[in-house]
Design goal:
By secondary structure, the chain is an alpha+beta fold. It is 14% helix and 30% strand.
Length: 227
């Protein structure tokens, strides 16, 4: 989509499934133009993650953050086109990484257990960092100077059955990682065997490894430019 305003460039994407909806609807405006809809989104500063404009009904809907798929959406699902402003990332205090898909991340220096880090990211209208493709891994690797020596990411074994999943529910693909150590053991919790159910990245060793979710570490949240 071409620039709707001189202060913003909007990326366009077809939202085909409920899992792609970016958060809660924070406002619905009737009988407006696409430019007015974009202006309403920009006026929200941090809260408006993307907007949907219906060219037939001229209804504008503003979305905040990222929705966690929960299967409660009404059927049938009707696909729509959404627009995400690229500068929203910086306006929310995050770092924008250029690329085909874009990556918008923020480092939190406060050390928290994995589940608390997850909640903090969701409070930020985002999620713990998800790196599902080799392109995403290579992109974030190029920004290693911004990242702590180790940090939580959005990967865990939620059912404690060895089936690792990203926080959006997709399965872990180990082929995109070069250095992985997943063995179910946490050296800091010797009395709790097979309780290493959360993943952190040790950046100093470029290694992805499992550890006990109760341990404290720094973490990285992201706000995907478009899911």
């Amino acid at each position: 989509m071409a620039s709707l305003m001189k202060t913003e460039v909007w990326r366009e994407q077809n939202i085909l499934t409920p899992a792609q909806v970016c958060g809660d609807v924070i406002n619905v405006i009737d009988d407006v133009s696409p430019i007015e809809c974009a202006e309403y989104c920009l006026g929200q500063v941090v809260m408006c993650f993307m907007f949907e404009f219906n060219h037939i009904t001229k209804v504008c809907r503003l979305f905040s953050g990222i929705a966690n798929p929960n299967g409660t959406h009404l059927l049938p699902w009707i696909p729509f086109v959404a627009y995400k402003g690229l500068s929203n990332c910086e306006r929310a205090g995050y770092t924008y990484v250029t690329g085909d898909e874009g990556l918008c991340f923020k480092v939190f220096e406060t050390e928290l257990p994995w589940f608390d880090a997850r909640i903090k990211c969701e409070e930020e209208k985002g999620r713990l960092l998800v790196l599902k493709t080799s392109r995403h891994v290579d992109t974030i690797m190029s920004y290693s100077g911004y990242l702590p020596s180790s940090f939580w990411i959005g990967l865990s074994d939620p059912n404690k059955d060895g089936n690792w999943k990203w926080i959006d529910g997709t399965n872990f693909n180990s082929s995109v990682w070069h250095n992985i150590m997943i063995n179910g053991h946490s050296i800091n919790y010797p009395g709790e065997n097979d309780t290493a159910d959360c993943i952190r990245i040790s950046w100093s060793r470029h290694k992805l490894h499992d550890t006990n979710c109760k341990g404290d570490d720094r973490f990285v949240c992201e706000r995907p430019q478009l899911l």
